[in-house]
Design a protein that fits this description.
By secondary structure, the chain is α/β, with parallel strands linked by helices. The chain is 45% helix and 16% strand.
Amino acid sequence: MTSVTTARRDTQASTAKAGVAAQSSGPAPVADPIPARLGIVPALDLDTVDELKRVVEATCTVPGVVEYKLGLSAVLHVGLFDAVRAIRNISDLPILYDHQKAGPDMPASARPFVKICSEAGLKGLILFPVAGPTAVRQFVGHSLEAGLIPVVGGEIPVPDYCIKGGGYFADDGLDRIIEQATKMGGRHFVLPANDLEMIRRRSAWLVENIRTPVLFLTGIGPLGGTIAEAFGAAEGLPSRLAVIGRKICAAPDPGEAARRMVDEVMQFS
């Protein structure tokens, strides 16, 4: 297992180094295929470590719970390393860190940010590199170089986020971010689950342009997205993961809530 993991990290690092050094606009090197999978990712956007432990203890043995998304609130309370340690004392499932949001910062902050996250023992980072192409190259490139998975996005399920809804973010901004991240070797992306036409269009692009892409769908539940509709809209993608927060974390029995969500996801297997 160690040699396989090391080889995978070496492949990611060589891809990232080539991209960071050359600021490449050409295609990324062909990477090994990612095994197809369906599942759910409980979003641990919780205020305290006790709440975090409660949800992890209830869900970590549920088949179909494949990893966790660690949010900023618990990290602000106890620090990144202690928050990760709290999960690790219960489960060895992979952890993605959502800095809410990493990526809009100065590109030069990418290297130290990624270094700290790598030292904490995370699997990957949710990145919103909306600060421009250089930010995409630096945050995605340094993540891959460190052996972390960059899960790249740029939109949230808020009606007035993009210009077309009265907001400030360019309507094609995420398209350009995804394209640049792909050139760096990124294959993991996150989209809001409530915009089905956008999911269809971007899923089709991912299938056409990336070998075995992985799609995370967020905003399921109170923010308007559903597993059935979002997974259906992304039907061309073999790897689809539902990031679910309140519907699991606020449930009286988070484990049972997770099982129900997994049952919905597995209708697409």
